[in-house]
Design a protein that fits this description.
ThrE-like_N, ThrE_2, mainly alpha, membrane, 2 domains, globular, 307 residues
Length: 307
């Protein structure tokens, strides 16, 4: 049930300013985890997409109820916070790895699963919001205004909870927590001080993760994918994907008279999410590729010396 601890941290990183949001988000994420486990163990529904849809439906209902009873003012983050844990970042980033390596079939399979997961989450939260309150998540969510140390602390919490969420052994948690906090601090510096775009800042943060984690993972014989994804989970652009989905709903309601601002927002959110995922994948894969090439050269040199 690591999502119960990860969801509030991710909500803070994605602009949550009202402290009343955090316990509601944590409870909703915990309840969603219980619901998905109950569906799998008691009902025998092991379809991952169905479980994601059910958890998103519950998050939408909780957000609508919280808004109706004035428990939280920002219904969008109440609804999206529990779902940020469930965004299939590893599947989407793994798809970019496979497509870059020309492993097309498995890359397309992972990409399809990731996109279907986003559709299931978006449909669930929008239907749940409609059932409870009729208010969809706001596509114009405010950016995060955390200080650097708050940003790093939230990223460390998210990385630790991700490790618990995906059953990473506890002996491996220290590395992604520390490196993930440093990488998110570097991303914060790139965004606030250098005024870089979100994709560029996330790519630089992931590059730091790749440079640090790859040699340590090789030395300690740790799985690079598990440790690397745990370190960068806080940088996955889940909020942009959900904002794009909310914007598409608003576009459907507006019809032909949709304002250009709404169309521009949808395109900007979708483009930011895509570019961020690509930049994150490149940041992780470039150091790994360099180390693999160095290892192959060492092997060839050793073979020449032997003969």
């Amino acid at each position: 049930m690591g999502g119960g601890g990860q969801a509030p941290a991710l909500s803070l990183l994605n602009g949550a300013a009202d402290p009343q949001i955090l316990p509601v988000v944590g409870v909703a994420a915990f309840a969603g985890g219980l619901l998905r486990r109950w569906m799998g163990e008691r009902l025998g529904i092991n379809n991952g997409l169905a479980q994601l849809f059910a958890a998103a439906l519950l998050a939408g209902v909780v957000g609508g109820v919280a808004t109706r009873f004035h428990v939280a003012l920002d219904s969008g983050l109440v609804m999206m916070g529990p779902l940020l844990v469930l965004v299939p970042g590893p599947a989407l980033m793994g798809a970019t790895f496979d497509l870059a390596g020309l492993r097309l079939l498995i890359g397309l399979a992972r990409l399809t699963y990731g996109l279907l997961s986003i559709v299931a989450l978006s449909a669930g939260v929008l239907i749940g919001a409609g059932l409870a309150d009729g208010v969809a998540p706001d596509p114009n969510a405010p950016p995060s205004d955390l200080s650097w140390w708050q940003d790093m602390a939230c990223a460390a919490m998210a990385s630790a909870a991700y490790g618990v969420f995906f059953s990473i052994p506890y002996r491996m948690l220290a590395l992604p927590v520390i490196v993930g906090a440093l990488a998110h601090g570097l991303r914060w510096f790139c965004l606030t001080e250098l005024h870089l775009a979100n994709a560029s800042a996330a790519g630089i943060g992931c590059l730091l993760v790749g440079v640090v984690v790859e040699p340590i993972a090789r030395r300690w014989r740790l799985p690079f994918a598990a440790v690397g994804f745990a370190a960068v989970v806080a940088q996955v652009p889940g909020s942009f994907l959900f904002r794009m989905a909310a914007g598409l709903v608003e576009l459907q309601r507006a019809g032909a008279g949709a304002p250009l601002r709404l169309l521009a927002g949808i395109g900007a959110d979708g483009g930011t999410a895509l570019l961020t995922l690509v930049a994150m994948a490149l940041g992780l894969v470039i150091p790994k590729s360099i180390w693999m090439r160095l290892d192959s050269r060492r092997c060839r040199a050793a073979e020449h010396e032997r003969f």
